[in-house]
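Sample intake sheet
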Amino acid sequence: MPGAEHNKLLVREAFRPWEAGDSGPFFALIADDVRWTVIGTTPASGVFTSKQALIDGAFAPLLDRLGGKLTARFVDLAAEGDKVFLRFESSGVTKTGLRYDQVYCWAMVMRDQRIVEITAYLDTELLVRVFA
């Protein structure tokens, strides 16, 4: 059974293309029935019980407010057992001109080389301003 170092490698290698603009490999690592919690009380916050529910309920409304693509920058990664902690930043601009310079920490659980659970910690006040 793969351990923490293997899980870190999977996540890091899947994140690399995202830094070049292609988030597909990272999201392919996420199980379709992922349990994804976005912290806070923002319009994008909540518990989503599938990848599609997350896309529809959180990502699509956010991306609809952006004036273009978000860029992603890896910060660091830690793992213990089946848990992987990814810190990264993203940058973009909303259609109204607000800078969206977000910081994230995603606490993830992996099973069978797939991400099955994520809790996303981020600057919720910035998210509230984007949805205002």
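Comment: The two ends are 46 Å apart (CA to CA). The mean pLDDT is 95.
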